[in-house]
Amino acid sequence: MIVEPGALEGDVEDDAEYVIVGTGAAGATAARVLAEAGAGVVLVEEGPNVPAAELARGTVASFGRLLRDAGGQVTSGPLKIPLLQGACVGGSTVVNSGITWRIPPWVYDRWAAEFGLSGALPARELEACFDLLDEELSVRQTREERLGGNGRVLRTGAERLGWESKTTHRTERDCEGSARCLEGCANGRRQSMNHSYIPRALAAGARLYAGCRVTRVCPRSAGGLAVEGTFALGAGGGGRHTLRAHARKAVLIAASAIHTPALVLRSGLDSTGQVGLHFQGHPGVSMLALFDEPIRLWEGATQAYEITEFRQRGMKIESLSLPAEVLAARLPGVGAKLAAYLRQMDRIAVAAIPIKARARGTVRTLGPFNRVNYCPEPQDVALAVEGLARVGQAFFAAGARAVLPGIHGLPERISDPAGLELIRRARPEPGALNWVMTHMMGSCRMGGDPRTSAVDLRGQLHGVPGVHVIDSSVFPTNLGVNPQHTIMAVAMVLARRLLEDRA
Ligand SMILES: Cc1cc2nc3c(=O)[nH]c(=O)nc-3n(C[C@H](O)[C@H](O)[C@H](O)COP(=O)(O)OP(=O)(O)OC[C@H]3O[C@@H](n4cnc5c(N)ncnc54)[C@H](O)[C@@H]3O)c2cc1C
Ligand code: SF4
Question: What is the pTM of this model?
């Protein structure tokens, strides 16, 4: 059952064994595990429930309905990095590309050795969760006919240079190659949470309140575990109603690495001073290339091909098909110059380079606002610049006529491989690059010691019995690969621990 603001006639009170805040990768996975084990589950989601038939209605409309602040969430401070997140039933999985990677062994080994997590997140159990997720969410390698021109040129470049590369593994069933993942997959081919685990949790009896922002988590010591929230105004007008959902066993916070610490801080539940520290991510930059042959960004899977050669160094290169409206923001110039580029739109290729950044930031609250203080370090900038030069190499190897690196202070257009030397020698300030971040983690770090971590080895906030964090906030480091699979596997393990306690 999904309850939406328009259907309400008054304030709502509910109770369940487990109340989950957020319905993205972590929240939906935990809901499916708990509900199918017979537990009572209530989910609360700030964003709207957007039916499949209303997805993929164009970029502007989709951003407005599916993304946090319509895509306008940014870092605080002088450097504004867009922090893209979904804010709807299904969370960021609704708008993501469905690429899956398991946690790399060298990252897991660090989690085990440096942060003592091998007992909390046993390697074998995680592997079994990955196998299950692969099966249930239909993880498969992108088919040749869904490569699209964009994936094809990246593959050609990588093969000619002899670099390790492959078609992406994604959660999809018969992807039609509409290149519109950013608008949500209207036909349900991508197995985002709104098309997979949420329906399963609902079928097992979970109740979901959509369009309801949780404003406070109440601890057991304040008269019983509960969450309090406020519904958005219903379409038919009327009052703004409230929700109070009591949790008989636990509250699970899965509101993402930004909104989870913000909610904990606003609720006054940070007993360690650790909540909101160690925020990390994979900031990314992008390279555009002009080809003589048709590329047609609108054909093929949104992200079909990836170069993995430099992965262990913290740099991954992915083909990325962008809609014209988003591409226009990355193209140089305005007016006639921009129009000239847009006229060549069918011959433009794009690749993204998310990096495993060293930078650490913080999430803080200021009244109703969140502040994400974060800026890439010089080594991160150097890695991103190297990534741009590498992609330039791949595009030229595939026959590109020119590349557009998007580095302020450098020529907007480089027309031969020798010109890439300019990029390699560049030492730009962080603000000279076009960053975007879609992978975030680390802001409620897991660990046994409350002096250095926010949650314990079962995900429970230190000193706050019954309130658990289950999303990527608990990761002690970033991953260097697309995170949703690891987020789901960790949420699965933590939900199972709650079931063991329930038995
Ligand atoms: C454009 C884009 C492309 C991406 N591509 C990939 C990819 O291909 N592969 C991959 O692995 N990862 C990808 N990611 C990242 C991945 O989607 C996220 O890392 C993952 O979904 C995060 O899971 P989560 O559960 O922590 O948060 P989310 O999935 O973001 O879900 C959090 C939910 O909590 C809700 N919420 C927040 N605060 C409150 C509150 N106070 N009350 C109620 N609800 C609240 C939000 O509205 C949201 O729906 C991409 C992300 C984006 C934005
Ligand atoms: S590219 Fe494939 S998975 Fe993405 S929206 Fe289109 S059909 Fe769905």
Answer: 0.97
